[in-house]
Amino acid sequence: MSKQVLVITGAGGIGQAIARRQGAGKSVLLADFAEQTLQASANALQGAGLDVTTQLVDVSSRESVSELAAAAEALGSVTQVAHTAGQSPTMASPEAILTVDLLGTALVLEEMGNVIADGGAGVVISSMAGHRLRALAPEQDDALRNAPADELLQLPFLTAEAVPNSTAAYEISKRANNLRVESASLQWGDRGARVNSISPGIIVTPLAQQELDSERGPTLRGMIEASPAGRVGTADEVAAVAAFLLGGEAGFITGSDLLMDGGTVAALHGGRWEASRFAGATSAMGREQ
C-alpha cells in the first residue's frame, strides 16, 4: 500500500505546526527556499518522531515547483498539501512579494493539483490582509482568479506604478490567493480532491515576536486591543483549522477561505480602528514564513 504524503511548503512556525499535527504516520515532504531554515525545521520535526524528507524549492519558478510535485509523487500518494511559503512587507520589496506570494501560490496550486490524490486536500495560508483590501473592479478580480499563472505578473494593475509599496503588494497578493484557490478547486475537484485557504490575523511566531518587540510594537498592540478577541493567535490554532479543512469533516468545503483574525477585520469595518493608522502593520504580522 502506497504511503500517504504530506507536502509542506514553508518551514516556518505555521508550516511546522501543521506538520506536527498532520504528519504522524505519513511521509512529510518539507520544502523551503532557505536551506538553513529548512534543515533546522526538519531536524526539529524528525526529533518529534516524524518521517521527514526535505527539498529546496523556489515557489516563483514553475520548474522548481514541478520538481517538488514530482518528488512528492515519488514518495507515495499525495493526500495533503499545505502551502505556507511567502514573503511579508517587512521582508521584501513589492516586486518580490508579488513574485513569491502571488505567482508562487498560483504555481503551487497548479502543480500540486496535477499530483494530488483522489480524496486528497490542500490548504493555502493566506492572510487577513486580503480581506482588508478595498474592493477591486470585477474585471480585476476575474483576472486574478483566471489569468494563466505565467501571465499574472503582466497584468496592468500589478505594475510598479500601480502597486507602490510592499503593503499594497501583500494585500493584493492575499486577495489573489483566495481567488486562485476558488479557481483551483475546479482542477483539484477533477481529481476528486479539495483545496481551501485560511486567512490568519496576527499569529505569534518567532518572527512576529520580533515585530511586537520592535518600535512598531505599540501600534500592533493597539490593533490587537481593538479586536473582539483582544489577543494574538498561535500557530497551533492555525494548524487546528488546517486539520479541519484537510480532514473528512470538511468534505463538502472546497474553493473557500476561512478568516481567522480574532475579529480584527470586523473591528476595521466597525470603525474601532483605522487602517490608515496601521499601514503595513496587519500585513507584516499576518503570518511567519
Strand content: 15-25%
- Taking strands numbered 1, 2, ... along the chain, how are they ordered across the largest sheet? 3-2-1-4-5-6-9
Q: How many separate domains?
A: 1
Summarize model confidence as the mean pLDDT.
91
Tally of contiguous helical segments: 12
Helices and strands: which structural class?
alpha/beta
Please tell me how large the radius of gyration is. Answer: 18 Å
Level-2 CATH architecture: 3-Layer(aba) Sandwich
User: Fraction of residues in helices?
Assistant: 40-55%
And the CATH topology?
A: Rossmann fold
- Element-level helix/strand string: EHEHEHEHEHHHEEHHEHEHH
Main beta-sheet strand count, sense and barrel state: 7 strands, parallel
Q: List segments where confidence is low: pLDDT < 50 over at least 5 consecutive residues.
A: 278-289
CATH superfamily: NAD(P)-binding Rossmann-like Domain
The overall strand count is 9
CATH class descriptor: Alpha Beta
Looking at the structure, what is the overall shape?
globular
End-to-end gap? 34 Å
Could you list some keywords that capture this structure?
289 residues, alpha/beta, Rossmann fold, 7-stranded parallel beta sheet, 46% helix, globular
